[in-house]
């Protein structure tokens, strides 16, 4: 504990802003001088020997802040700074006492941004993921593996297949209950055609997914549908066959509309898949249109979005991609700053040509967002900032590299 106090006193200005860095580490991309000076201090904080709750909290926030050092532009003349950060993070993987809470979760979540070092990270991260028992930490580790796996399929695929197979177990063991089949299937999807041997397993999950591994047990068919949908998406990414994922996503969307059970969490999982499918999912057009006229909405005077309002934004973005004939109508839809604000993660996945068609709408939404200071919340940030980043990129005022870095934070909210 004395070591913690010593470090705390030396770097109290940094500790004071670590909460900000946790959620907004990407802002360091635009402050290279500040970033280069901070790495030594952050490493000192991340590696202190303190397992008290307060010590873990401090260390986890320092680790999150080290996400910035995966970007070579921050220290173009100091590559050793980035190497120092990677080496530190890999060394922390050996401290097994940290893998039951905040520090382990922060470490796994941070490592997923070091894609250039995937070959070094994957073997250690796979070993840690197979042995960790805390559900939240395991989920973070599997998610990190999923993001890092696309260029190193031979290393990651066997682990993903073992993890995904738990979705077929009717009476899972205690260790199997800590598995993350959803994350594993996202990893298989990221590997793509290189994961052909996983296709039979995915097909089995599509037809016979189980939810006994979940604790507590879910209510209704929500998780079964989501398991099957993720398996169908992975099957499409691996084999190129869209029939399963189109059929499942369209039927789930129709059923959701029929029951009137819109949910940001579920539509936030389903609609990005429909968006990815594009014209192949054109059969979902009527259901998407119906979702866009749901009655619940934004509450005037409130700083939060109503659930159905966010679902409308997601539905509009999905419709833009699946049915190009609707784009004239949707251009007016996205003039509303709330809808544009809620769709930024989708805009980040659009081609520049698509965004060019939305330029007039984005300009109007941006001007309206500047005039309405209520358009802010702790999760989505300020509408003005988010819409402004897309607008500057679409109009050629922002280079591709910083735009992509900014988008990474936005995409992670709804894309897996």
Structure write-up:
The protein has 416 residues and is mostly helical. Helix content is 64%, strand content 1%. It is built from 23 helices and 2 strands. The chain has a two-stranded antiparallel ribbon with strand order 1-2. A hairpin with a 3-residue loop joins strand 1 (376-377) and strand 2 (381-382). Helix 3 (32-46) packs parallel to helix 5, helix 7 (118-131) runs antiparallel to helix 8 and helix 9 packs antiparallel against helix 10 (181-191). It is globular, with a radius of gyration of 22 Å. The two termini are 38 Å apart. Residues 1-35, 71-75, 216-220 and 297-304 have low confidence and may be disordered.
What's the main sheet like? Answer: 2 strands, antiparallel
Shape: globular
Which structural class should the secondary elements be placed in? mainly alpha
Poorly predicted regions are 1-35, 71-75, 216-220, 297-304
Strand order of the largest sheet: 1-2
The number of helical segments is 23
Q: Average pLDDT across residues?
A: 77
Rg (C-alpha, Å):
22 Å
Helix percentage: 55-70%
Q: Report how far apart the termini are.
A: 38 Å
Write the H/E string, N to C.
HHHHHHHHHHHHHHHHHHHHHEEHH
Please tally the β strands and state the result.
Answer: 2
The percentage of residues in β strands lies in: under 5%
